[in-house]
Amino acid sequence: MANELRTYVSADAPPAKAAAPAEARLRILATTDLHMQIVGHDYVRDRSVGHHGLAGIATLIRTARQEATAKNAACVLLDNGDLLQGSAMGNQLAQMPVTPAHPLVACLNYLGYDALGLGNHDLDHGLPYLRAVAGALDMPLISTNLHLTEPGPLRRWSIVSCPLPAVNGQPMPPLQIGLLSVLPSKTAIWNRDVLEDGARVTCPLESLRSAAPLLRAGGGLIWLYCWPIWALHMKVRR
Predict the structure, then answer these.
(1) Which InterPro entries has this protein been placed in (predicted)?
(2) What is the side-by-side strand order in the sheet with 73-79?
């Protein structure tokens, strides 16, 4: 899990002093490539895999949030993708109806993720399963360059309203965070049998360029780009 603690200026907040605008602090938490490792157990060999999966990460998330609160900072929690595939539990769940009791859905909702990016392996169990999971989540599941033939619960972009703590006793307006997430360009090849006529994958960079004006129009002050596997990029709108 990667996290950062940075300071941003809120243009709409009343300044603490006439000469300077108020400032707010934001901590960004992100997980990636969990691959259905909820408790860190190998169900094929019936043994521990040497880590505690999402259950173990949950304690880190709690600690990071407490640290942010102690420093009077807001906190946002994201995932970069590749959540749904990678374990025997994931394979079994993909064959069952998705309800709020779905183990991964229940964990993500309980932990209060703000948004999820879609990874190419999240397509491995098919579009109907992906739609069902997205529909059961309390947070947006985003893929900027995946275009579904039929409208569904996935989003190309999203703006998350992040509450900010008061600064010097002055209330702060919520921080509007614009979120984008792209699949690797080769997803169209890797998951061709799943996509077929149900969806198409477009160029990541071109998709980001076309979605950026939508974030701008929607009022996104900070833009976060979630890329599966290795990075979460950030741009501050001036």
Answers:
(1) 5_nucleotidase/apyrase (IPR006179), Metallo-depent_PP-like (IPR029052)
(2) 2-9, 23-31, 73-79, 115-117, 141-142
Q: Domain limits of the chain?
A: 2-236
42-71: b (≥16 Cβ within 10 Å) or e = eeeeeeeeeebbbeebeeebeebbeebeee
What integer pLDDT is reported at residue 225 of this predicted model? 67
Q: In what order do the strands lie in the sheet with 231-236?
A: 157-162, 175-181, 222-227, 231-236
pTM here?
A: 0.84
Beta bridge partners of 5: 27
Q: Identify the bridge partners of residue 41 per DSSP, sorted by sequence position.
A: 48
Tell me yes or no: is domain 2-236 CATH 2.60.40.1180: no
Confidence at residue 40, expressed as pLDDT on a 0 to 100 scale: 76
What confidence score (pLDDT) does residue 19 get?
A: 43
